[in-house]
Amino acid sequence: MKPNIRLTLFFLLVVAAGCSLFEDQSPETLSFRLEGSAGTQVLAIYSTAFIAGLTETGGTEVRVFSSDSVLHTLPIDTVFDIAVDRQFFVQIEPVDTVDVDARVDIDGRNVLDSEGFIFPDSPWRYVYQFNQRLTEVVEVIL
């Protein structure tokens, strides 16, 4: 190998190492915030034990194997460890119609910032899976 090629390869490896190219980019924490009228109660169903995939009609189907149900009083501000499962599912069911702002951050990087109404007969759902593209139309099988 010619000296110039060796020097170029060495330089490229140094640059790649400095750019975090070799670092593990797997997610570790997920921060979930839901703000709305203070004092409003909602039922939240959380899970990291599920499978999800795209359906033939272009939606996302989620099959939940185990979950935690928590009755929250808004606002919600919580952090989940997703280092092992690398995925997260939440379903929010209000008692009455509620206007909310939802935010999800993965390792401090924002992946969702939305606002709107959640209706009692139409729960709000969010699904995150590392390195998989999913849709906002989510069908759930509990």
Describe the model.
The chain is mainly beta. 11% of the residues lie in helices and 55% in strands. It has 1 helix and 9 strands; from the N terminus they run H-E-E-E-E-E-E-E-E-E. Strand 6 and strand 7 form a beta hairpin. The chain is elongated and about 70 Å long.
What descriptive keywords fit this protein?
142 residues; Lipoxygenase-1; 1 helix
Q: If helices are DSSP runs of H or I spanning 4 or more residues, what is the number of helices?
A: 1
Mean pLDDT over the residues: 86
Radius of gyration based on Cα positions: 20 Å
Percentage of residues in DSSP E strands? over 45%
Any guess at the CATH architecture? Sandwich
Q: What is the highest CATH level, the class?
A: Mainly Beta
Compressed to H and E, one letter per element, the order equals HEEEEEEEEE
Broad structural category: mainly beta
The biggest sheet amounts to: 5 strands, mixed
CATH topology term: Lipoxygenase-1
Q: How does the overall form come out from the CA principal axes?
A: elongated
Helicity range of the residues? Answer: 10-25%
End-to-end Cα distance: 60 Å
Low-confidence stretches: none
Question: Into how many domains do the coordinates divide?
Answer: 1
Q: Topology of this protein?
A:
Blueprint: H1 3-18, E1 29-35, E2 41-54, E3 60-73, E4 76-81, E5 87-94, E6 98-106, E7 109-118, E8 124-129, E9 138-141
Parallel strand pairs: 3-9
Antiparallel strand pairs: 1-4, 1-6, 2-3, 2-5, 5-8, 6-7
